[in-house]
Write a structure and sequence with these properties.
This protein is mainly alpha-helical and about 300 residues long. It is built from 14 helices and 3 strands. α2 runs parallel beside α8 and α7 packs across α10.
Length: about 300
């Protein structure tokens, strides 16, 4: 059963869109049922998964997306430690939960989770399933809650559009599917199990590496910015907060060898792209109680000297 669970995850994640895979999988599962390797119910699940994978990432179940995202987040947190301050993290979740509820994907299997990373690097990550990490360095670029909302809404945009899952290399999972098919009529040898396990672990590394090292394609970043504007306006935030925080991150681009400067398009290009969409909104102004909440939760904490 453990092997079958691994196989099901791998086949479900596969995004080849190949009719040949669909046909071969059906042959393999038929042989598997005939030989007693798998049950007819398991074969049906595999066939349905293989048929769906080429169509859309929406066929990945919320539960699978959750466990992938949790593994990716754990990998990132090996490099970036969580910021141990409950007030800052609570604030981030208050704002983030309101924004995620207004997104096109308001619910995930395990819910949205927001956390501050304890680093001055200007960066943020969105893992599948709604795990969103924002650095102290990036929050320091935020002058008000609208800017914080812009950062979180952009990352929520990546989640709702399944951008993280698109980082999985097709070749890796195609190889794993070949093992599944060729070995479906007999017991898996240790090397086959190892190959399947490596393939699944590789999907986690694909996503983590994209987030940390290369970043998303320019089109995906633009899509996330546009999603952020929509989400912000639904909640009542001024989308100029996105423009403001981008302008502030631009000041750090030259000296930032790892963060936004490495993994995101130039702030000036992003501002130019969104400017027509937010031109009708006035500049961000002091929002009274909201600004007081921002000051209490972030300004004092994030600008104090870290030991």
């Amino acid at each position: 059963m453990r092997i079958m669970a691994c196989i099901l995850i791998i086949v479900t994640l596969l995004n080849s869109g190949c009719r040949t895979l669909d046909a071969i999988t059906q042959v393999g599962t038929s042989v598997g049922v005939a030989t007693g390797t798998i049950s007819s119910q398991q074969a049906d699940s595999l066939n349905k998964s293989a048929s769906a994978v080429g169509k859309t990432f929406d066929k990945i179940t919320p539960e699978q997306e959750y466990y992938i995202g949790r593994a990716v987040t754990a990998t990132i947190l090996k490099t970036y430690k969580p910021f141990d301050n409950s007030e800052a993290n609570r604030y981030l979740n208050i704002v983030g939960q309101a924004l995620s509820a207004a997104s096109d994907k308001p619910e995930t299997f395990g819910g949205y989770h927001f956390m501050v990373m304890d680093t001055d690097e200007v960066n943020a990550f969105a893992s599948p399933g709604g795990f969103i990490l924002v650095s102290r360095g990036l929050l320091k670029c935020c002058k008000n809650e609208d800017a914080v909302a812009a950062v979180l809404a952009h990352e929520i945009g990546h989640v709702q559009n399944l951008h993280g899952l698109r980082a999985i290399k097709k070749s890796r999972l195609t190889s794993a599917a070949s093992v599944v098919v060729s070995e479906s009529a007999k017991s898996f040898a240790p090397d086959q199990i190892a190959e399947l396990t490596t393939a699944f672990e590789g999907t986690i590394n694909d996503i983590s590496s994209t987030l940390v090292n290369s970043g998303y394609a320019r089109k995906l970043e633009s899509d996330a910015d546009h999603a952020a504007i929509t989400i912000m306006t639904r909640v009542g935030y001024n989308p100029n907060g996105l423009k403001d925080v981008l302008a502030e991150t631009a000041k750090h681009s030259a000296a930032d060898a790892r963060g936004f400067a490495k993994t995101h398009p130039a702030p000036a290009d992003r501002i130019r792209d969104i400017d027509p969409l937010i031109r009708k909104f006035g500049p961000v102004t002091d929002a009274g109680a909201r600004q007081m909440r921002f000051n209490k939760a972030l300004v004092r904490i994030l600008h104090e000297n870290q030991q």
